[in-house]
Design goal:
With about 325 residues, the protein is mainly α. It has a domain at about 35-255. Helix content is about 75%, strand content about 5%. The protein has 15 helices and 4 strands. It has helices spanning about 1-15, 15-30, 40-65, 70-85, 95-115, 120-140, 140-145, 170-195, 195-205, 210-215, 220-245, 255-270, 275-290, 295-310, 315-330, and strands at about 150, 160, 165, 245-250. It has a two-stranded antiparallel ribbon. A two-stranded antiparallel sheet has the order 2-3. Helix 3 crosses helix 13, helix 4 packs antiparallel against helix 5 (about 95-115) and helix 9 (about 195-205) crosses helix 11 (about 220-245). The longest helix has 27 residues, at about 220-245. The protein is globular and about 70 Å long. The protein starts with a helix and ends with a helix.
Length: about 325
């Protein structure tokens, strides 16, 4: 009995850090399904959307070193493309949100080619200008976007065979499971990209772009690849989430989403994959507790940013990394 317990303890300790983080994230992601509360499930669906969006921003900012305000622009454009594909062209939501992601991925290439020719500081301005332009078009291009009224009456992703409804996306639990499956796939692909040689090249260009160029690396190509991948997943996330809302309108570009993404990445730790995902769940749940007082919620956002800058400049992920380095140095020190 004791031998079996010791072997179990060794097996637990033998798990890699990535495996332990994966278990923690899986527990967080599955927790809303055990509550039986539609409200918690709806908040959980938003948390999953933020997890994909924040991880996409983390790919650009934390690993590639480019601060981009375009993620909410791509999230909104993907939502509108998916809504138009369904409302005007009769595509099913399952196909429409993929079309939205493909469109934003191509759009990111068209935006990124000229944007990446300027300095990193100017890139921030270009990315912000893109989001502002997308917001303006959503309000003004009435023939396509229906202006401030938006596009209502969007169907939920469902599966029907004959007259039998097998999967009803209107049910909060069902949609949460759909969103969870998509988030798991998206985060898995981004994780594989980060851990691949491409991810190491992105980190190298982030740390020393000139040195990376001197080694024969075409920096702009890899930056453009990361920008396009992040945009595609942001667009798909927006395209899928609006079928849960049932409507898309210019509020999809609300600055609240941009603020949330920045806070999640900064507090989670730019360049840290798992802690940013955990931060997405935590920082989506906390503002919901303060929904009764929007002004207090803004004060909380400001306090979080100031506190993170003063106490955790590298975010929670940076703090854990420094703590692990200190422990490792003590262990190897004679």
């Amino acid at each position: 009995m004791m031998t079996r317990a010791l072997n179990g303890g060794r097996a637990t300790r033998s798990l890699s850090p990535d495996a332990r983080w994966c278990v923690c994230v899986a527990i967080l992601a599955l927790a809303p399904t055990l509550t039986g509360s539609n409200y918690v499930l709806n908040v959980g669906s938003l948390a999953l959307a933020f997890a994909v969006l924040a991880t996409s921003l983390n790919l650009i900012f934390g690993f590639t070193g480019l601060l981009s305000f375009a993620q909410i622009g791509f999230w909104g454009v993907g939502a509108y493309v998916a809504a138009i594909a369904t409302a005007d062209y009769g595509l099913s939501p399952w196909l429409a949100f993929v079309v939205g992601g493909a469109f934003t991925g191509v759009l990111a290439i068209l935006v990124g080619i000229p944007a990446l020719r300027v300095s990193r500081a100017s890139f921030v301005i270009v990315s912000l200008s893109f989001t502002l332009l997308a917001t303006l078009l959503s309000r003004s291009w009435i023939d396509v976007t229906r202006g401030p009224l938006g596009i209502p009456g969007l169907p939920a992703p469902s599966i029907t065979i004959g007259d039998k409804l097998l999967l009803d996306g209107h049910d909060p639990l069902t949609f949460y499971c759909i969103m969870l499956g998509f988030a798991a796939l998206a985060l898995g692909i981004i994780f594989a990209l980060i851990r691949s040689p491409i991810g190491r090249i992105l980190l190298a260009t982030n740390q020393n772009e000139a040195l990376a160029r001197s080694q024969g690396i075409n920096v702009k190509h890899y930056q453009l690849l990361a920008f396009s991948v992040a945009a595609a997943f942001s667009g798909m996330t927006g395209g899928l989430y609006i079928f849960h809302l049932g409507i898309v309108d210019p509020s999809i570009f609300d600055t609240y989403y941009s603020e949330m993404l920045l806070i999640i990445v900064i507090l989670g730790g730019a360049g840290n994959f798992w802690t940013v995902i955990v931060a997405a769940f935590v920082l989506t749940a906390v503002p919901e507790l303060l929904r009764f007082d929007p002004e207090l919620r803004l004060v909380m956002f400001g306090a979080v940013l100031v506190g993170a800058a003063l106490v955790l400049p590298g975010g929670f992920g940076g703090y854990l990394r420094e703590a692990n380095l200190k422990r490792w140095r003590k262990e190897v020190r004679p």
